[in-house]
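Technical note accompanying the year-one report. For the benefit of new consortium partners, we illustrate the data format agreed upon in the data management plan: each record pairs a sequence with a structure-token string. No post-processing was applied to the example shown here.
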Amino acid sequence: MVRILFILFCFTFSITGAQEFNARVVVSAEQTGNPNLQVFKTLERSLTEFINNTKWTDVDYRTEERINCSFFINVLGLNNDSFTANIQVQASRPIFGSGYTTTILNVNDKQFNFNYLEFQPLNYNPNNFESNLISVLAFYVYTILGVDADTFELNGGTPYFQEARNVIGNAQSSGTLGWSAQDGTQSRFRLNDDILSGTYDGYRTAMYDYHRLGLDVMHNNLKEGKEKIVETLETLRKMHNTRPNSYIMRVFFDAKADEVASILSGGPAVNLASAVQTLNTIAPTYSDNWKNIKF
């Protein structure tokens, strides 16, 4: 409801019954040595249609409510119908009272191998594992839905994250990488488990506070919004104190590092020294971003 009211304030034109996504899929195959094979173009077109034309929720999204997202698939190798690849997933949402859009998710998944025959039908079945290709896309679709909902309502994305967990459960029997607790600290399993774990509640609280109470109020009160974003960093610091160097912290700053540095560098004065110290503590790998913050 919060999301719908927000969009209604932002836009006047609406069409009911639209699907949830305005997705762009790019398939790059330069590293295969045969980038112009027709199968890559077919895959790109089929995946775009799969994401944009599938009804993923019971909610009727208006056209202007569709979530803008992109899926960049870098194919590293091809052997018959077996693809070795990685996938970069990004999503954004609009900021109230402005023409600005903000990145809410930016994940690079290197555990993305799949089989695909040109022109094979792509359909999502929530009760079964159909293929690794379909499961990976479905997982990120529901993760995007969850992250987006969390930015409009505190913990509003829980049903979508639980659906992503269902995708994981169905896919684990396939034995493919990314679905198991044993598949490393930056797997799809780990991302979902961290989001739904109470240990990392600070991430979800930060996503809501940063967007709904920070960015969304800046059109009306720039200082208040900026101060809330600084408070968000303290929420993340508390999470860091409990679980340092977590994957979910990296997920937050992979989406937000450039934006945080830009916001803190301009506008009304806040306690920047403390904020920068916090950033260097919780996200030291982005130190080049924090060096650009102007006091």
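Partners are asked to follow this layout when depositing records. The chain has two domains: 2-196, 202-291.
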